[in-house]
Specification:
By secondary structure, the protein is α/β, with parallel strands linked by helices. The chain has four helices and seven strands. Helix 1 runs parallel beside helix 2. Bound molecules: iron/sulfur cluster.
Amino acid sequence: MAKDGIRIMDVLHQTTADGPGLRTSIYCAGCLHHCPGCHNPESWDMAGGHWVGIDELLEDIKSDDIADVSFSGGDPFYQAEAFTELARRIKEETDKTIWCWTGFTIEEIRRDPDLARMLPYLDVLVDGPFILGLKKPGLHFRGSSNQRIIYLNGQPEEDCIPGTVKTLPYL
Ligand code: SF4
């Protein structure tokens, strides 16, 4: 997948659904996890959505002084090279935080250098596939209880394991 653009389903501005506060949410196309019960199967097609250049996405993100950024989909890690470039430039050119949702676990991502390159630019990773049998209403920012909210930016690793994640200060 090209590094200079991302296949996008939608970009939502000032949403409060994808992480704390107001956020610009980038919903990408393409997901091969095919979790039964997925909330968004129309996003699975790897050739779906439409192509948007990194520069255009960045300008869109920067046009909002307040909103932080969320990557979702689809699965951003199926377009890891381009999302890594977008995340790198967001961190270089703004002070915005980045939350990212993925169907991969962080252990899978760390084992693959092509995927792991994105991690240093993310503040929070919400990881793991949606598992219908573990669906739990009321989980903040997750659909099933296997999924973890993992703080990557200066947070102690031991605070990032499910069951040990402390109460999120903004919830
Ligand atoms: S990872 Fe997310 S988008 Fe992909 S199939 Fe699972 S729930 Fe759907």
